[in-house]
Amino acid sequence: MSCVRLYHKPTGIRVVATESRSQIKNRELAFKRLQVKLMELNIEEKERILTRKPRYVKEQILKNKKNDLKKNRPEKEFPGMTRNEGLKFFFKTGV
Q1: Whose CA is closest to 39, among 4, 13, 6, 9?
Q2: According to the model, what pLDDT value does residue 74 have?
Q3: Measuring CA to CA, how many Å separate 13 from each of 21, 28, 36?
Q4: Residues 57, 46: Cα–Cα separation, whole Å
Q5: 64-72, long-range: CB < 8 A, 24+ apart
Q6: Are 75 and 84 in contact (CB under 8 A)?
Q7: What is the pLDDT of residue 41?
Q8: CA–CA separation, 34 vs 31, rounded Å?
Q9: 51-83: per-residue pLDDT in tens?
Q10: pLDDT of the residue at 13
Q11: What contacts 48, CB < 8 A, 6 or more positions away?
């Protein structure tokens, strides 16, 4: 019997074929086996597709929205009230 051994240096994979008496057939078998093993190594898991936004992203978006509202909101003055009282009144009534 003639044995064929193949070694793939980059990955360290070794393959042996001894089924046939023919060296050519064994070489073909060994190359096919090596191909299969290399294909198995190259199969990567698909990256998960995010179906909805994670909680931390939602919190960050809300935080940014609140900050933008504070920056763009014109300050109203309420006669006879302090600034904090006026803001509380404004948020409760939506004036």
Answers
A1: 13
A2: 62
A3: 24, 16, 11
A4: 23
A5: none
A6: no
A7: 85
A8: 5
A9: 888 899 999 999 988 887 777 666 665 566 666
A10: 92
A11: none
Where are the alpha helices (H) located in 5-73, listed in sequence order? Answer: 23-42, 55-72
- Identity of residue 72: N
Return the amino acid letter for 55. Answer: R
Cβ-based burial of 33 (10 A; exposed 0-12, middle 13-18, buried ≥19) = middle
Q: What's this model's pTM, rounded to 2 decimal places?
A: 0.45
Q: Which long-range contacts (CB under 8 A, 24 or more apart) does 66-72 make?
A: none
Measured CA to CA, the distance from residue 88 to residue 53 in angstroms comes to 32
Measured distance CA(33)–CA(17) in Å, rounded: 9
